[in-house]
Prior knowledge:
Layout: H1 2-12, H2 17-42, H3 53-67, H4 72-82, H5 99-121, H6 131-142, H7 165-175, H8 196-205, H9 217-233, E1 235-238, E2 244-247, H10 254-261, E3 266-267, E4 275-276, H11 283-297, H12 303-314, H13 322-329
Amino acid sequence: MITTNKKIENFIENDDSWYSDLELKVLDLEKELTEWRESRTREPGPGSGSPPRREREMLRARGRTQDEPRGSSERAQALIERGRRTQRPRSGRRPRPGRGRTIAIGSAAGLVVLVIGAMIVLRNGPSWPPSVATVKGEIATACQNPNVVSEPSQVNFACGTDTSQILWIFALMTSNNDPGYADAKTGRKGLEPITPAQGGQIAWSLNLHHPYNPSSPVDSLAVAARAINNIIGGATLTGANGKPAVQPGLESKPENCARYTGSPAIVARAGFPSLCASPVTTREGQAALVADVYQKWMPGAGPVAAQNVSVLFQNAGNPGDPQVQAILKARPDRGG
């Protein structure tokens, strides 16, 4: 019996011991409540031969004290005699899982959800050519040059926070993002579609610290940014006679401003190219401006090519757009 008691004592120390003790206490309380109700029903009036109520209660309390298990061995013996109410294999009742098991199940379920979410986020989908990421980094360096803005109007569409994608999109569509690109027919080199001589003239305005190198991506992109800004905002140059020569830009025409800003109003100042009175901020206005710039940028570019570049500009953050994918697949040279 000592060995049996030790085994049972170890057993009741587990997670189920608390439930067993609780049910035993509930049984005792039920018994006490039943006895109390019976005593209230049968309680005699004054003068009867039955013991006083207080005495009866003391007797019952003494009996319960004598019957109550006093130690771990007695509790084990009581479990043997009364049975374990928490284990009822015939009734189909399942034991209650422990708190640790519940936490483990919840943690495992949460981990599964996180893994599935990560797989969805990291799933490979349509993207820009790998060279785009490289050119973006080179644009960030090129745009640190403070002289890329147009003079004297200070237009800086090409290096704007929300519009600088015009540089890598133009480079992608004209030179396949290859700084070593060379066109034997036109003689142009680098990422911008102008001749080295033209690039050298623009580079002089950029205060570059070495002769212009069209094969250097940073040099080429800085020249491209200044050229795009000049196309939009115009420029004031010194003529052969030593006097300022104003060259108008796309924003110098009221009809263009109406397309870009919704208003034909312009601002005109002596010695400065005229500019649209309102900034070009809408998605539609910027798309129209980019299409016009491209046709000025690429001699001979037709409206279809200009529209394609405009679509890429508008979807710079959405390479999975069906139109974008169709345009990229139709490029003559799909490398990079």
